[in-house]
Amino acid sequence: MSNRSINIKQLSYADVDFDARLDQLLAWENVSDSSVGQVVDEVLAAIRRRGDQALVDYTNRFDRRQVSTVAELSISTEALQQALESIADVERQSLHIAAERIRHYHEHQKQASWNYREADGTLLGQQITPLDRVGIYVPGGKASYPSSVLMNALPAKVAGVSEIVMVVPAPGGELSPLVLAAAAIAGVDQVFTVGGAQAIGALAFGTETVPRVDKIVGPGNIYVATAKRAVFGSVGLDMVAGPSEILVVCDGDTDPDWIAMDLFSQAEHDEDAQSILVSPDTDFLARVKTSMETLLPTMERAEIIRAALENRSALISVTDMSEAVSLINRIAPEHLELSVADPESWLPQVRHAGAIFMGRYTAEALGDYCAGPNHVLPTSATARFSSPLGVYDFQKRSSIIMCSAEGASTLGRTASVLARGETLTAHARSAEYRIKD
């Protein structure tokens, strides 16, 4: 492939139409196609109605399989262990290192139950309990993601989830041994080689073979995202994820090849991924563009990267770093790289970001695999109100209230007044029965 120009958008914060152009660049509605919704509705209704048979039919149809029962789509724990033993030593060692780092990081997130007792003996508190059964969706298709297995399953294990059910598509029956090896390391209990909306439906509603779960986590394509949104309420969700994103802010003193490859690292996911570079140094932006054009022909997924860069990506010049901070909080990126001299000084100003990679040596790719923090992150500006996947997503909180006789009498008087103010007489009388004369 020749080093032909990359037609990436170039914006300036000072332009009069900058706001409109940025809004257009950021616009993304991941469940906007009514035809997708119709297909998903049909699939989910069939899974509800016909269970295993519908799951088999759709898997044969969409994943080019030829199976008769869901049992043929199940992978035993022995097969997972065999996959772990079959991979190269360096691959096995890397999976173990990554798993240990991810587990160690998430151990710090564990919440503990707590309570306190008031002077009159009333006990108040909060009890933390893990979910019983969780389903994890691991994407297939354009790439295999053993890292997603670790990132989704290990926090659930740390939280104390009793059973983890994994679904992963295997088009044509092909499945990466690394994905199965990661499942073995992470302690996944059941694996089914199914994907798409049919897999989400099976986890949400249960079939004769696939158990119903309490929560579904993990990213997928537009059909998976649409199905997750449709089943919410029947089952809990982590998030409805959009395409992968990275926002790199650089002061101009990092090697432009490094920055170009950091932008590529997200662009190679798919054609809708978004890579944005912000800098006050316009010469540096030009050097990064040159680096991208030089490096792109060396990439295995060059056409996907080019499409992502030209469709939804941009180089943005700012006057100073305060404008860069403003853009960070407006964009609320999934991944934020602060490739600047003193990144720690930026932290108090960054309000919205899924994960923050600080300094010139901290490539976002390290977070994807082995740094420790979770790589399942809020996309499409949802970092304004949501957080990375973590142990807390697999734990529930129950309030604890135990009144002493004295406490019930004291609280009863207050509750009675408020309940009668809402004309809820039964509430009032229930509280009043406990009031001491």
3D architecture notes:
The longest helix has 19 residues, at 89-107. This protein is globular. It is 43% helix and 16% strand. The chain folds into three domains: 9-28 and 242-371, Nitrogenase molybdenum iron protein domain (Rossmann fold); 34-111 and 131-237, Nitrogenase molybdenum iron protein domain (Rossmann fold, 3-Layer(aba) Sandwich); 403-432, no CATH class. Strand 5, helix 6 (146-159) and strand 6 (163-167) form a beta-alpha-beta unit. The chain is built from 16 helices and 15 strands. The model has no long low-confidence stretch (mean pLDDT 95).
Strand order of the largest sheet: 1-12-11-10-13-14
The CATH topology of the largest domain: Rossmann fold
Determine the number of helices (DSSP H or I, runs of at least 4 residues): 16
What is the average per-residue confidence, as pLDDT, rounded to a whole number?
95
> Per the principal axes of the C-alpha atoms, what is the gross shape?
globular
Number of strands: 15
Portion in beta strands: 15-25%
Question: What's the number of structural domains?
Answer: 3
Helix content: 40-55%
Low-confidence stretches at least 5 residues in length (pLDDT < 50)? none
* Rounded radius of gyration (Å): 25 Å
| The CATH C-level class name of the largest domain | Alpha Beta
Instruction: Provide the structure class.
Output: alpha/beta
* CATH architecture field of the largest domain: 3-Layer(aba) Sandwich
